[in-house]
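Appendix C: a fully annotated inverse folding record. The material below is reproduced so that readers can follow the format used throughout the book. The structure is listed first as tokens, followed by the designed sequence.
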């Protein structure tokens, strides 16, 4: 139900005129100025919204503190001294840390060269260990046992099984 269907502004357009009159079309604004009933209805809406606003303000608790904006802030005499002393303390801490770092670099310099030679020796030992591991991967059987164990490609024969289980060793009380 708009203005044209019954001759007056509908409630949505009336609310729009309260929020921002610029939202109305030129025809709607002219009608609102010319029509006494629509003007009264708009004034009643504004009046009830104002009453609602006053009621809400009456039921809203007050804040415990007064808000002080930065431009209204009162100057504190110790603030300048505190900011200066904190800056000095930060700079002093930075100088101490830099001194400790440089001192540690000076003291540990020759030790690092000794560490390099120790690391080179450990690397040589590691290479020897890896060579031994690779040799065991290729042939895991120690040299003394190589003569009594047949080649892996060979098929065990009766002589080998006789070596493992002698023919005279049978179950106790049984026949072989």
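Designed amino acids, in order:
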């Amino acid at each position: 139900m708009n203005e044209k269907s019954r001759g007056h502004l509908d409630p949505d357009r009336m609310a729009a005129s309260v929020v921002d009159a610029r939202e109305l079309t030129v025809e709607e604004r002219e009608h609102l100025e010319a029509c006494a009933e629509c003007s009264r209805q708009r004034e009643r809406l504004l009046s009830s919204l104002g009453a609602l606003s006053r009621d809400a303000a009456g039921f809203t608790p007050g804040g415990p503190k007064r808000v002080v904006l930065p431009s209204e802030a009162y100057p504190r005499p110790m603030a300048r001294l505190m900011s200066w002393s904190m800056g000095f303390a930060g700079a002093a801490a930075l100088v101490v840390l830099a001194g400790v770092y440089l001192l540690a670099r000076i003291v540990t310099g020759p030790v690092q060269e000794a560490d390099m030679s120790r690391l080179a020796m450990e690397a040589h030992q590691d290479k020897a260990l890896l060579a031994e591991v690779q040799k065991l991967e290729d042939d895991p059987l120690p040299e003394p046992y190589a003569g009594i164990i047949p080649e892996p490609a060979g098929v065990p024969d009766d002589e080998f099984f006789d070596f493992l289980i002698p023919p005279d060793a049978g179950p106790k009380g049984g026949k072989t």
